[in-house]
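USER:
Make up one protein:

ASSISTANT:
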Amino acid sequence: MAININIDASSKQNKLVAGTNITIDETNPLVPIISASDEAKLDTIAELQAYSGSFESVTVSDLTRGGTFIYQSTGFVHDGGVVFTATGKGSGFWVRQRESNQVNVEWFGLDLTGLVDETNALAAINTKYNDILFPYGVLNASFNNNKSNMRYESRNGFILASKAPAGGVVHLAIGKGPSDADWLPGDTVNIVENVRWVGTLITTSRVGSYYCRGLYFDDIQVIDGAYLGVPTTPRGVHFHYGSQLISCKSIQSVAGVAGDYAVGINGSSSVNAFTGIERTEDIYIDQIIGDSVEIGLLLNKVSKVNIGTVDIRTWGGVSNVFNGAVMVGCVDSHIGILNVNSSQNLGTTNAGVYIGAANRFTIGQIKSINNKHEGVTLVNTWTDSYYTVATPNKQLRLGQVVAEGNLKSGIKIQGSVIADSFISINNNYATDANAANIFFSAASDCEIGKVKVIDDGKTSNALTILNSTNITVTKAEIDNAGVFGVYIPNSTYIKFHTLKVNGATNNLRYDTNTDNLYIGTFQSSGATTRDIANVSGTNVSIGFKGGVIWFQEPFADVGFVKLNQQYASTAPTSLVHRKGHVYLNGNPSSAGFVGWVCTASGTPGTWKTFGVIS
C-alpha cells in the first residue's frame, strides 16, 4: 500500500501544498520532512538576531529564552519575547513557534530574582498577549490589568512582589465607572470580564478588583515580603465596587498597613451601592485565613457573598488586629464558620466580630475568643446614609455563637437577631460598667434557642437585658456571676421558657419599668443574697407557669425571695402599688396572718390581711 502526500519539496518550512508527489512505504512511514541540515542551531537570542545565514528555521538552546524560530519577512512587530527583529538578515522577523497561545515571561528576559523593577515590562506583555505564564522566581512588579478574557498561570511557587510605595498592587480586573476618583461626566464605563489566575497567586502586594464580571482564582497568598529583600508590608485582598462573579478556593492574607484588611469585599459608597454596575455581589470563597492590622475580614454593602470558613488570627504571635471581622450591609449572604482569635488593640467601636444592618444574612457558627474588646457585637445602627436597600437586622440568622475570654461583653446585641445558641465563657469586663457576658442593650425582636453562661471569675453580670423589648429565650443556664445572674431593667415582653441560675449575688433581678416578664420554669441555687430581687419595680407583671424551685430557706437573708411581693412587718404605707400585689408577713406567729394583699391600686393602695394562721 502506498500513500501519496503532496508537498513543496523545496520548502524549508515543511508546508504541505500542492506540488510534488511523494510515496511513503507503509513499512517505513516516518520519513523526516526536514533534516538537521535544513535549520540552524544557536545558543542565544542575540545570536539569533545577528544570524545572517540562509536558513529560515533556527533553534536557540538558551534554557530560559530559547525555542524554535521561523523567519518571516513582514507582518510582525518586535516585542522582545515572541518576535525579534532579524537584524542580521537586514529586515524581517524571527517568530517563536508556540504550542499554544500562552507566553512565558522568561522569554522576554524579565528578571526573576526580585532585584529589578519590571512593572513596565510586564505591562507591555499584558497589553499584547492574553495568556501569560509565570515560572519559578520572584518578579518585582506592580500590576494592573484592564483587559477582558485574560488568563494567568503561576508555577513552582512563583512570587509577584513589589518595591513600589505601600507594597504595590496586583489589580487583575480593573474597569472604570462612576465610583472612580478620577471619573468625569461623559467618561465611558469599562467592565473587565473573564479573567482567571491558574495556580497559587503568591504576592506581597494588594490583590484587588473593581468593575469586573468573572474573576476566578485557584488560591491567593498575600505574604510579608521582608525576607525576600522587598522592603514593603503586605496589604491584603480587596474586591471593590462593581466586582461581580468572583470565585476563589482559598485566601491566606496579611495586611500590614494601617487601614487595610486581610480580605475586604465592599460596594460603592454612592446611592447605587445595590443597583446597576456599582453592585458588588456573587462572591464565592471556600476558605479565608487572615491576619491584619485593623480588620481581618470586611464585608460592606454587598449581596450574595458566600464564604465557607473564615479564620482571623494574630500574625506571627504579635497581637495586632483591631477588628477581627466587620460585616455591615450584607444582603442575601452566608458564612459557614467564622472564627476570630486574639484581636488585641482597644477601641470604643472595636470587636472581635461586628455585624450591623443585615438583611437575609446567615452565619452557621461564630467563635470569638481572647479579644481585648467585645467578642461579638450585633448592632442596628449604621451611619452611612446611602444604605437604602436592606432593613437593618432584618432576618439576621446565626447558628451557634461562642464568646470566650474577651475583655468586654462576650456577646452584645443592640438590634434584632435569631440564633440557635449563645455560649459565653469567662469574659472579663471589670473595666466596662455596662458590660455583661451576654448583654442585650436596646435590642428588640430577638429569638434565642439556648443561652449558656459560665463565669468562673464571677466578674460581673452574666446576662443583662437593658432597655429592650420582645426578647425570647427557650432555655437559659447561668453558672456563676459576680453580681447578677439575670438582670432586667427597663425592659418589656421578656420571656424565658426555662431559666436555671446558680451562684450570683442575685440570681434574678428586675427593676423599674420592667413589664411582662414571663418565665416558664425557674430554678435558682447558690444565691449569696437573693434568689429573686424586685428593686423599685412598680410596673412589673411576672408569671411563673411551670413553677419556682430554689434550694435555700426563703426566710433567711441568703436566698431571700421577693416575687411580686415583699416581706414586711406591716402593710405598705408609701410608693405606688397595683391591685394584686402581695406582702408576706416577715414575722409570722400563731393565730396571726400570712400577709397583706392590695385590693385597690394607689399610693400606697388599699391593703387587707389574708391567711389566718391556726
Remarks:
- The chain is about 5% helix and 50% strand.
- Residues 119-128 form the longest helix (10 residues).
- The helical segments are 45-50, 119-128.
- Residues 68 and 609 are 112 Å apart (CA to CA).
